[in-house]
Amino acid sequence: MLGWKDVSKYDFKVITLFEAIQLEWLFKWRKHEELSVLLNKYPEVSWFIKYKNPKIKGLVEQVEAMHSDLSYSRELEERFICSLEDWIVYVIDPNSYDQHSHNNWDPNELLGIIDFNGKTVIDIGSGTGKQTFIVAPLAESVYSVEPIGNLRTFISDKRDLLGYKNIFVVDGLMTKLPYPDAFADIVMSGHVFGDHFDLEFIEMSRVLKPGGMMILIPGNDDKDNDTHKYLVDKGFEFSVFLEPGDGYKRKYWLTK
What is the DSSP letter of 129? Predict the structure, then answer.
């Protein structure tokens, strides 16, 4: 549990607030035995998933029909719901995520890497827009790419409240960016990179101009891991910064 918000009061129906891509991720990353129990407990949720994301209809039906040694209990359901704390917070209370201490890192940790003045910037997986709003006063334009609808709404509302005219909020994924080749001077991302190293790196490189900079804050602690090795092998420089409440993290940058 992340400790962002107590989500234990919700039942399995809360996932009907998820985006189609989140439902796809759910069936890739979560235990099918538990999903089977909950889908059979809540057939209306099963119906919703099949029509929200027809691409995984066959998989949903397979999971529904699978034999499981587990039986339904509120404890099982609560444990499953709490394992989705971050996703649930994104769709029911983005403001609580935005106000969390780990988002209060020093903006100069980003602004000190490169001069953002007059630049075209893509911010991938923007969340509630921490990085977007740091660079918007300087950049020519900032394109906030975020696949979660409620988070896009949060950024758009904050943009309008603050009066920014150079922030453009769009749906998209790190592996499928809605921009032409060599579009941006800077491509940056926080707490997103690392699910598909090659696909993500290739797609970010595609939309980056020659001589442009890629900046990644993957969320990894100050220790060597697979993400660190991949990025260093690609030629990224890195340094360490403090993320309040979550310890020291690494940030990486590379000029194309």
Answer: T
Q: Cα(125)–Cα(191) distance, rounded to whole angstroms?
A: 8
Reported confidence tier of residue 67, pLDDT bands at 50, 70, 90:
confident
Q: Which two tokens stand for residue 115?
A: 């001069």
Do residues 83 and 26 make contact, with C-beta atoms less than 8 angstroms apart?
no
Distance separating alpha carbons of residues 250 and 256, to the nearest angstrom: 20
What one-letter code names the amino acid at 149?
A: G
pLDDT digits (tens, 9 = 90+) for 154-172: 999 999 999 999 999 999 9
Rounded mean pLDDT, 28-54: 95
The encoded tokens of residue 27 equal 């069936």
Nearest to 16 by CA among 81, 97, 103: 81
Phi, psi of 173 (to 5 degrees): -125, 160
Between 85-92 and 149-162, two packed helices, what is the crossing angle to 10 degrees? 50
Q: What angle do CA 77, 78, 79 make, to 5 degrees?
A: 90
Q: What pTM did the predictor assign?
A: 0.93
Give 52's contacts (C-beta < 8 A, 6+ positions apart): 16, 20, 23
Burial of residue 185 (number of CB atoms within 10 Å: 0-12, 13-18, 19+)? buried
Look at the block and give the residue holding tokens 């769009």: 170
Q: Express each pLDDT in 209-228 by its tens digit.
A: 999 999 999 999 999 999 99
